[in-house]
Design brief:
The chain is mainly alpha-helical. It has five helices and no strands.
């Protein structure tokens, strides 16, 4: 519903000033500084209506972290939340500290201790993504 009201717009600014004055409701506009990059995305209306924003049906691309989480899930009893927590905890740690965390998590039954998963698969994945830089031999000596 549109109002048929006459609007009187008076802009006061200093000559040579780099500013803009907007009076009244403004929707669907993009304001940016010269030289900036603007990415427009559809606006999702609030209020629980049935209408969806156009183009909102696209799928998000999986990130590298998502791929690592999926690869590590079997070693963490398929618990993606624990995998993410583990990755955040070891981020930036020294390799010897990472193996200490692994041993603690195995003791707490958050990382599987069956077969070769802890000794081989976990080292392989962490090494491939650059989180653990020491050799497999070093890993196997430190992880119980």
């Amino acid at each position: 519903m549109e109002e048929n009201e006459t609007k009187n717009v008076v802009n006061h600014f200093e000559a040579g000033a780099n500013c803009q004055v907007f009076n009244g409701p403004i929707t669907g506009c993009v304001f940016a500084m010269p030289g900036s990059t603007v990415t427009q995305q559809p606006v999702v209306q609030q209020g629980g209506g049935e209408e969806e924003a156009a183009g909102d049906d696209r799928q998000e691309e999986p990130t590298e972290q998502d791929d690592v989480v999926e690869r590590l899930k079997p070693i963490f009893y398929n618990n993606a939340e624990n995998v993410s927590r583990f990755l955040n905890e070891i981020e930036g740690m020294k390799d010897k500290d990472i193996t200490d965390v692994v041993n603690q998590w195995v003791g707490d039954k958050l990382i599987s201790d069956y077969g070769n998963s802890r000794k081989g698969d976990l080292w392989t994945i962490l090494s491939e993504v650059g989180l653990y830089k020491s050799s497999r031999q070093n890993w196997c000596r430190r992880v119980f």
